Amino acid sequence: MKCDDTNIEILSDYDLVTILSNLIDNSIDAVNTNISEERQIILRIKEVKNNLVIKIKNTFNNEIRYNKEELMSTKEGHSGLGIKSVKSVVSKYQGEIRMDITDNMFSVLIIIPFHP
């Protein structure tokens, strides 16, 4: 984990916990189901060009489920409510969220602008 000297106070405590708890929980689950010996979670929080940037990456077993281009949970009995909650918080702050898969790494990038 790396967290620069960044002003995260633009988010309410509840919203910050919603983002981090869901993303970290999803990453831990993905890493725990990864059959590879290389298991890794990287979390970075920093300020870039007047934006709060949160990026989390984790290794995973290449299992991704979609429903109408929406990412779905691979957890038994879960519907993907956690990532929907994260998207809702990001939208509330007029931010953006991007998800990407590169070289067996799943990453989520959140960019939330600091408003004057």
Provide a count of the helices: 2
Share in β-strands = 35-45%
**Taking strands numbered 1, 2, ... along the chain, how are they ordered across the largest sheet?**
1-2-3-7-6
C-alpha Rg (nearest Å): 14 Å
Distance between the termini: 28 Å
The residue fraction in helices comes out at: 25-40%
Largest sheet, in brief, is: 5 strands, mixed
Provide a descriptive summary of the structure in words.
This protein has about 120 residues and is an alpha+beta fold. It is about 30% helix and about 35% strand. The chain is built from 2 helices and 7 strands; from the N terminus they run E-H-E-E-E-E-H-E-E. It has helices at about 15-30, 80-90; strands at about 1-5, 40-50, 50-60, 65, 70, 95-100, 105-115. The strands form 2 sheets. A 5-stranded mixed sheet has the order 1-2-3-7-6, with helices on one face. It has a two-stranded antiparallel sheet with strand order 4-5.
Entry keywords:
116 residues; alpha+beta; 5-stranded mixed β-sheet; two-stranded antiparallel sheet; 2 helices; 7 strands; 28% helix; globular
Topology at a glance:
Blueprint: E1 2-3, H1 13-32, E2 41-48, E3 51-59, E4 65-67, E5 70-72, H2 81-92, E6 96-102, E7 105-113
Parallel strand pairs: 1-2
Antiparallel strand pairs: 2-3, 3-7, 4-5, 6-7
Helix pairs in contact: 1-2
